[in-house]
Amino acid sequence: MEKVYVLGGAQTDFERNWTKEGKGVIALLREVIEDGLADTGITYDDIKKLNNQNRIACFVGNFIGEYYINQGHLGALLTEVNEAFYGVPSARYEAACASSSVALDAALTKVRAGDYDLVLVIGFELMKTVDSKTCADYLGRAAFYESEGKNIDFPFPKLFGRLADLTVEKYGLDKERYLNNLARISEINYANASRNPAAQTRKWFMNYEQASTRGTATNTSVGGMLAVSDCSQITDGAVMVACASKRFIDEYKCGNTYPIVKGWGHTVAPITFDKKIDMAKEADCVLPYTAKAVELAYDKAGLSVEDIDFFETHDCFTSSEYAAISAFGITPVGEEYKAIEDGTISFTGSKPINPSGGLIGCGHPVGASGTRMFLDLYKQIAGKAKGYQLKKADNGMMLNIGGSATTNYVFIVGRDAE
Amino acid sequence: MNDIKTVTVIGANGAMGSNVSAMFASFGNAKVYMVSRSIEDSHAAAEKAALSVKAGTVRNNLIPVDYSSLDYCLSVSDFVFESVSENEEIKKQVYYLMHNLKENVIISSGTSGLSINKLKKYLPENVHECFFGVHMFNPPYSMPLCELIPSDGASLELTEQLSEYLSEVLRRKVVTVKDTPAFLGNRIGFHFINSALLLAEKYKDNGGIDYIDAIFGGFTGRNMPPIVTADFVGLDVYKAIVDNLYENTADYQHEYFKTPDFAEKLISNSWLGRKSGKGFYSTVKDGETKKRLVYDIALGDFREIRKYNIPFVGIVVENLRNGNYKAAFDTLQSDKSQEAQICKELLISYVIYSLFSARESGCNASNADTVMAEGFNWVPPMALVKAFGGKEKLLDMIRKEFSSSFENIDYETLILSAEFSDYDYRRYLKAKR
Fold first, then answer.
1. Which of the four CATH numbers 3.40.50.720, 3.40.640.10, 3.20.20.70, 3.40.50.2000 does domain B6-176 have?
2. Could you read off the pLDDT of B324-344 as tens digits, one per residue?
3. Distance between CA atoms of A89 and A94, rounded to whole angstroms?
């Protein structure tokens, strides 16, 4: 199997509202691709040349452009960005909020198999094209729409509110302590995002007091015990990541070293939350398929939690980050609160989670979030995270989930030992 | 400098007073005494302040008081922020009340136009070196610019400590500016706005106000056209700023700070813009719907807004919509219509005057970018130079087409010596008319 090297990429500023700017999907794709190519030193001429040799392919991650921008056939859209993409194999991959992780999965597989030497993965979502209620309804299609989305206002906060209930019940937690832990998760993500110049919330105010005071006019309840401060917020955004084979590195990037993809794990849990609850009753943790995806990635990489310096997780809600803590192996199952209360997962802790700000801090353009996490792993390992650079970042793990922790995708990226 | 744990904001019932109180109470996590003439006003301002940062719990840090408590508030405060009316006499009276101050207190004025060195004279001499202008932009929650104006004789160390507090704790984008008229942001911004108003007068037979605004829509790097902006901030506020600049500057653009006659006339009618229902524009009810009218300078009356047929605008907007920034600027540069020339000339003037004013205020080009991006949300001047294709391309265009307009300023040196900042022009160039 070929090693896969991560060359870099680019992220659009998740604070931007492209509809307010009057701009469409081609502008979004053009900006992220041009920035990504500039970051990796790849030119449109390189793309043409590589394509003449059938050595390059593109992978587009997007959840539901058919609704937000009335556009399908998204792999083919790149041809509107530049004619260098004429003839380049390109297709769209979808798995709800994990769409760009399954695009990465396909891309990395084809490099590992030796099919292509350079792969460009572009995750994007334009969501500010509609009002928030319509947006939430569209997102309901990431659950089982017929029973969990249709005619339900803001379905996802309700589903992750149920995860919160399940966690308290299964682990026998004190509800108030649990909610305060969730508030701390929110506070950490906002604080981390304030250092990230591409984060949606970098100028926003949030502290522990505000996050732990729920059910008020400025922190309204959204689902079960969760409030607005527990939610990530949708936004517009795109991310490009470029990965390559050893052949490409030798030919185009002679002498340079790059982080490599060390492990991956992919599981799919039952799509309905009711069935997830049934599963959890039998399992030792609330999200067994999430834990399984992490375990698969550790096995592939031959690494354990001791080897991982930092994590980027899918904190679509604070309750999902809480559950991820033990899934990563940072604490035993049921003792997640320890890593929150003793500062383990904070920016300066021993196992920082979401140094970027995560979904809560960065914003969540659903089809872009997987590539955003992957790019953040790269930035930390390559020492390019600037204001949010961690001191030690040799290996990083990301968890991207689709739906109510239905699709689970984990990657480990790290420094190449050789 | 003390740790800033307690703050007094005087004039806390004004828009800036209440919003600035919220900055100290939220990001600063300080206890803030909000002082205004009536306790009811202070209470209302505290409620508004908490909402301005979207965090009800911030209200716990806000303590509404009136002037009867001022002495006590001053005696316990680490930071005093004066935000009373932009009137030297009123500020003087407030400054005369400032005794019984805590040791190592910082005293600041939020003035947008009055001289910091002049205001300082009304304070007890022992606090002169702790006095600063701290000029934030409205609303500070979304406009992070903070101009920091040390008074003459302020210690460098204290200035640096204060700058660090404002940027690291209050999360402001701090630019340290000399005590120059209107400081930096408003000098550049209102130069542009008044230039647009003077153009409206010059081209009054072409349509005037809405004609000029049609040439400087969102596609030129702003959320709203310049005269709409003046209407939005209020004609009285606009006039106070440009009058101040006209009276207190004598640079090569002096005449561009003269309020045009038609604006004087509107102001004398108390037509102060959006807040009074009428100004450069007006909104009237037309049955069930609302209709936007514009003041027609030639006609001396309001009329419906026109849809001007300016071909280059449509092409530029379409290119921006698809992210073709280069094609958009190539179109603007190659178009020789009257409208395109007006557009280019004022954009160039904006770049040159920004660089000139930055130098006057003891700042650099990068600071000019910061003030326009973070205080106005306009395309920053040096980012605009990049959008035009770089320094040489822009200079070439000025030399060939606009040199007579800029013959009294050494624009070559200003542009060539200016450094680029990290600001990206793309997000500022809206695909909008």
1. 3.40.50.720
2. 999 999 999 999 999 999 999
3. 17
